[in-house]
Amino acid sequence: MASATQRASLVTMTLNPLSVTASTPPQTTSPPSSSTNEPQLAIFHRMGMVISGMPSVCLWVSFALTLNDAHHKLARALAMPCLAALCLAMMSHPTSNPIYVKAGISLYYIVVAVAASVGFSRDGRPKEIVLPLVTQIGMLFLFHKYVFPLRARISRLETATLKRYVYDTVFVNGIGSLPPLVYLSAESLKCVLSRTPSVPSSNDLACGAVIWPQVSICVMLFTFLVMRLFIAPLSSVEFPTWEELASFEGISPRVRLQALGFGLALFLNLVLFCLMAEDVSEDMLSLVHAVAAAANLSLLVTVVAEFRLFRRGGRAAGTSDLAAGGGALQSEGSQVLRDVEKGSSGEFMNVGI
Fold first, then answer.
1. What does the DSSP assignment read for 119-169?
2. pLDDT tens, 162-189?
3. Helix, strand, coil percent values for the chain (each to nearest 5)
4. Domain segments of the chain: what residues?
């Protein structure tokens, strides 16, 4: 039997039903914002990356319009830093509409190919059309064949993983990889801009032995960035130890091929760095071209082999020794730099004093 207090409460609820809801105000929940569901960098950073990728294509267009030979040399020198900035912009919002990304990258390479063809044709150098045309078509093929599918796979990662990827890999490590590219390009810019208009700039002997080594070294650094952006997020393998790499025991033949490919490219680019000079002979310039071609070919074969494994889905866990190796080498290099800085500051140089 209900008590007197319960009966009084029942009567109160019957006469005034709003008395119960008045004490507990309704709670409104706003839908989650798009920035929470879709990890992305701020529009300020994304626009800065896109703008940083434009100088090379603008210089190619300027060369086609003005036939100023210095413009196409500057465009080649800035090609890798600009492309690196565009790759960062492309991955700064991994879940964005892929149609716009594909259209933007395709338009970039088409404009460069057309501008280079028009410029060299008008300047009476049709043979020089071949290299930029083949390069742009090849890069466009690699992007559509391998890079865009990998971007689609990255966009399907978990939200927490994507946040770490956008904020750490793209923003911190990605932007940190641009200064070395810009620094190397500055040598070519200095050589080209220091030439007076009275000197025939069409002769590649003036700055060719500066531009081509710089471009080759930048291609290698850009390759490391590509591995970090598109392969490392899908990798879950542990990189072989330094003992295994030194003895070549306990590692697969594929890893051996990767190590040989990158080791050869690193050695050849080191040779190119030593050969960088202005106003060289034709024989020296031919040697520079041959070494640069060998270095880039070694990188291309190694990277395409790794891309094919990921695009085929050949590994269930999406592992990559090459990507893990890039991170390990970068970490080891950073530690060496820190040790050198400590030594120069005298923190551990007082041993035995």
1. HHHHTT-GGGGHHHHHHHHHHHHHIIIIIHHHHHHHHTS-HHHHHHIIIII
2. 999 999 999 999 999 999 999 989 988 9
3. 75, 0, 25
4. 40-194+202-344
